[in-house]
Amino acid sequence: MASHRRPKQPSRTRVTVLTATAAAAVALSSQAAQAAPNPSKKDVKAQVDKLYEQAEQATEKYNGAKEDQNKLQKEVDRLQDKVARGQQELNQLRKGLGAVASGQYRSGSIDPSVQLFLSGDPDSYLDKASTLDQLSGHQAEQLKTIADKQRRLAQERAEAAGKIEDLSATRKVLGEKKDEIKGKLAKAQELLNAMTAKEKAAMQAEQERANRANDRTDLGDDVPASQRGAAALSAAQSKIGSPYVWGATGPSSFDCSGLTSWAYQQAGQSLPRTSQEQANAGTRLGSESQLKPGDLVLFYNDLHHIGLYAGNGTVLHAPKPGAAVRYESINNMPFAFGVRV
To answer: Which of 122, 176, 254, 307 is the most exposed place for a label (fewest CB within 10 A)?
Structure first.
């Protein structure tokens, strides 16, 4: 017969303990929430700026790898064309020697050395004086020419293979840096997306004020160091308001070294692609007081940012994602040195 006992009710003591535990848990959760408040707009901005700086460091490395890739690709193409032409010349030489052998065969007097050559590598036969003695002067010259051509062709093929390996490694680095940049920018965007609408609007307004400040910038009356520097600065000034885009070299968007290289190109001067390479494009200037409008200005210890000196302690540059080409105080970033192209 089944039992119909009532379930045992929890004791008053047990209920009290459970209630107290739950209350403590709620209190701890509340304290934890108060101890770890959402980051302020200032904190988010600092984190975002740091991520943008890291993205720019990766961008300059990406730019360098991109430049290396372009150079290697041209070198690989040149070597492959050279190998193809060499192979064609070798085929023609072999064809000519084959015609001689064919004529000798029809006459029943094919030279054994020629026959031996056509069946294998001529190098091993050229070392045998007895073989050369049996050849006519013309045939010996043909064999030597073919052997030399084969050796050169083998060296060129090996060189091309080495360049192709270098190209493959460079492409790998390029892909890694591209992923790193995208990762940094995506993380920055996540932080921005987590902000309130009011905070986003305030940050956007701050950025717009910085962009609009170009109209009120006092560049003083500093005299450019050269006509070329003045022309480069003038070209860059025509791009004020253009957006920063990593890896971009103009004419509608730029990264930092993309702007400086484009500006000097308009002035008739070719500059290397990256800020680190541009640091060696002229005479170094160790102090800010030596700068003249049009000089390059390098920032940070690793030289990952560059701009153009515009005068009166002001630099014209492509700052970072979300910002346009604009003037800023040279003191907004750690000055490394200047370069007079």
So the answer is: 176
Pairing status of strand 296-299 against strand 283-285? unpaired
Q: What CA dihedral angle connects 194, 197, 200 and 202, to 10 degrees?
A: -140
**CA gap 85, 87 in Å, rounded:** 5
As a whole number of angstroms, the distance between CA 253 and CA 59 comes to 14
Q: Do the beta carbons of residue 278 and residue 261 sit within 8 Å?
A: yes
Give the per-residue pLDDT at 138.
63
d(CA 44, CA 37): 13
- Identify which of 220, 212, 163 has the alpha carbon closest to the alpha carbon of residue 326: 212
Measured CA to CA, the distance from residue 207 to residue 187 in angstroms comes to 19
Nearest to 149 by CA among 78, 82, 76, 79: 82
Q: Among the options 4, 138, 304, 305, which is catalytic? A: 305
Q: Which entry of 4, 138, 256, 304 is annotated as an active-site residue? A: 256
> Is 304 marked active-site?
no
Q: Quick check: bond before 37 cis, omega within 30?
A: no
Q: How do residues 213-230 score in pLDDT, each as one tens digit?
A: 677 788 988 899 899 999
What's the length of the chain?
A: 341
Confidence of residue 2 (pLDDT cuts 50, 70, 90): very low
Residues 211, 241: contact at Cβ < 8 Å? Answer: yes
pTM of the model as a whole: 0.67
**Is 317 annotated as catalytic?**
yes
* pLDDT tens profile 255-274: 999 999 999 999 999 999 99
By the 10 Å C-beta count (0-12 exposed, 13-18 middle, 19+ buried), 108 is classed as: exposed
Q: List, in sequence order, every residue forming a beta bridge with 305; answer none if it has no partner.
A: 299
Mean pLDDT over each residue of the chain, to the nearest integer: 81
Amino acid letter, 26: V
Do 297 and 307 form a contact (C-beta atoms < 8 A)?
yes
Q: From residue 84, how far is each of 18, 75, 277 by CA, in Å?
A: 85, 14, 35
The answer to whether residues 50 and 185 touch, using CB atoms and an 8 Å cutoff, is no
